[in-house]
Design a protein that fits this description.
The protein is an alpha/beta fold. The chain is about 45% helix and about 20% strand. The strands form two sheets. Strands 3-2-1-4-5-6 form a six-stranded parallel sheet, sandwiched between helices. The protein has a six-stranded mixed sheet with strand order 7-8-9-10-12-11. The radius of gyration is 20 Å and the shape is globular.
Length: about 350
C-alpha cells in the first residue's frame, strides 16, 4: 500500500543520513514530546548524529521522560543554527503545519534540506518533501511504532516509555474515539517491552501542583453556562492567575472538568496569562471540531481538544470565541446528532 511504501522511503532516508535534526510543534503535548524523544533515542541507537531542537521547552509535567535536560533543547540561534546547517534531513513530528514549528520550522525552510513529516493530524496537507500522514492513527507515536519495524532497532524500555506516554495522553487514557484495536496492539507491544502503566499514569495525571489545584478550584467555581447549557466556560483574569502561577502545561487539564457537566457539549477556558494575552483551551464531546475553531484564531490541535493564544481584550475574545462555538453547534444540530456523527468528527483528528 501507499502507506507502507512511504514508511519504507522514510526508513531508507533515515538509514542513508548521518546528521539528522528532529522537531515538533510549539507548546508540545505528550505526543509531541514522547514521539520526539523516542525517535531521538531510536536514531542514536542506530549510530546517527541526531539532535532534537524544538520551538518551545519540554513542559515540566513531561520532564520525567528525559534522561537529562539536553536530550530535547529549546531552539537558540547562536547554539543551534550550526547544527541545523549540518543536517542532511529534517524530521518534523506531530505537526500539522510548518508554521506550528515556529522559529525552527522557519530556519529549516531557509536552509532547504529535505523535510520528512510524520503526523496523524488530518488537517496536515503535507508540507514536507516526504509525508507520512495517517489521520486515522491515534497518535504520532503509533506511527513510530510501525516505523520501528523497518529500522534495525530493538524496542527497548527507554524507547517504549515515551511512546506509551504519547499514546496515553493523545487518546485521553485510551478513551477517545480514535482509540482503535491497532492502538491497543501498539500499547501491548510497549507493555511487553517493560512499560509500567500505573507509574506513567501517576506521573502524567496524579502529579499536579498545589497552585494549579487552587486555581482550578476558583475557575470551576466561576463556571458559566451558555447556549442552553451546551457550552461551559470559565474566565481567569490576569490578576487571579498571577496569584497562583501554576505550571503552564497544567492548564490544559482544567477544561475536561467543565466537560463533565450534564448536557455540556463544549468547554472553554479563557486564561489571561499576561495583560492582553489570553490562552484559550477548548474541549468537545464530538459535535464540534474545536481544532477548526482554534485554527480560525491562530491556534490548532485536535478535533476534541485544541487551543489558541489570542492577543486582545479578554471580553472581546470571549465574545468572539463563544459566538463561533454557537455557530458551529447550530450547524451540527442541523445535521442531526448521532454517536456515528460524533465519531466521524473525532476521526478528523
Amino acid at each position: 500500500s501507499r502507506i507502507i511504501r512511504v514508511m519504507k522511503e522514510i526508513a531508507a532516508q533515515i538509514k542513508s543520513a548521518r546528521n539528522i535534526v528532529i522537531t515538533t510543534h510549539i507548546q508540545p503535548d505528550g505526543d509531541a514530546v514522547g514521539s520526539t524523544l523516542a525517535l531521538l533515542r531510536i536514531l542514536r541507537n542506530m549510530g546517527k548524529n541526531c539532535r532534537a531542537i524544538t520551538p518551545s521547552p519540554v513542559p515540566e509535567g513531561l520532564a520525567f521522560l528525559l534522561r537529562n535536560q539536553d536530550e530535547i533543547v529549546r531552539y537558540r540561534p547562536e547554539r543551534d543554527d550550526a547544527v541545523l546547517g549540518e543536517a542532511e534531513i529534517f524530521i518534523v513530528l506531530d505537526c500539522a503545519d510548518l508554521d506550528r514549528a515556529g522559529e525552527v520550522g522557519r530556519k529549516m525552510t531557509e536552509i532547504g534540506r529535505p523535510i520528512l513529516v510524520i503526523d496523524h493530524h488530518s488537517t496536515n496537507e503535507g508540507f514536507g518533501d516526504l509525508n507520512h500522514i495517517v489521520g486515522r492513527a491515534s497518535s504520532t507515536a503509533e506511527l513510530l511504532i510501525e516505523l520501528l519495524d523497518h529500522l534495525p532497532v530493538v524496542l527497548s524500555i527507554d524507547i517504549a516509555v515515551p511512546l506509551y506516554t504519547a499514546i496515553l495522553t493523545d487518546t485521553g487514557g485510551f478513551n477517545y474515539p480514535i482509540t482503535t484495536p491497532e492502538t491497543h496492539k501498539s500499547a501491548s507491544r510497549l507493555l511487553e517491552a517493560g512499560v509500567n502503566p500505573y507509574l506513567i499514569y501517576r506521573q502524567v495525571f496524579l502529579d499536579q501542583s498545589t497552585e494549579y489545584i487552587r486555581l482550578a478550584g476558583l475557575a470551576l467555581f466561576n463556571t458559566r453556562l451558555a447556549y442552553g447549557g451546551e457550552v461551559a466556560y470559565s474566565i481567569v483574569p490576569h490578576d487571579l492567575y498571577r496569584m497562583f502561577k501554576p505550571r503552564e502545561d497544567e492548564l490544559s487539564k482544567l477544561p475536561p472538568h467543565l466537560l463533565t457537566i450534564h448536557g455540556v457539549e463544549i468547554s472553554a477556558l479563557f486564561l489571561e496569562t499576561e495583560p492582553g494575552l489570553v490562552v484559550v483551551e477548548l474541549r468537545s464531546q464530538g459535535l464540534v471540531n474545536v481544532a477548526s475553531v482554534a485554527k480560525k484564531f491562530g491556534g490548532g490541535g485536535h478535533s476534541g481538544a485544541s487551543g489558541a493564544r489570542i492577543r486582545g481584550e479578554t471580553t472581546e475574545i470571549v465574545h468572539r470565541v463563544l459566538s463561533e462555538l454557537e455557530n458551529r453547534l447550530l450547524r451540527a444540530r442541523r445535521k442531526g446528532v448521532t454517536e456515528k456523527y460524533r465519531s466521524e468528527i473525532w476521526g478528523r483528528y
